[in-house]
Amino acid sequence: MSDLASDLKMNILVVDDEDLIRKALSRFFSAQGHQVFSAENGVKALEFIAKEKIDIIILDLLMPEKNGFDVLAEMKKVIPVVVISAFSGTNADHFHSDEYPQVIGFIKKPFEHLNIVTEHIQKLYANYIRKI
Fold this sequence. Notes:
By secondary structure, the protein is of the alpha/beta class. The chain has one domain: Rossmann fold, CATH 3.40.50. Strands 2-1-3-4-5 form a five-stranded parallel β-sheet, sandwiched between helices.
């Protein structure tokens, strides 16, 4: 039986000011056949969201110019978001609220195994698709 998460080809926006994380996630998803866009801050993320068809956003919270909270508040399109952050005041329960309905998951940084993180992101998206 085929796994929906591995069969979906997505347009992914990776938003993180940490170059290493942004590039690693982008390379990993690109190698799986996904179209990947990347942005190093919230201003550029909002520009991509406005002009590109994005299926899922992987979003850091603490960034220069506009942070992840700003992006979540200013998004004009309904796009599922997986938050990745080392922000110590943040936990998964905080994002399962009416305030951030587009957030479908939360992953705490730092993470050691990129393949586990990307599998988790794909499963979150597949579960989101099954619900709509």
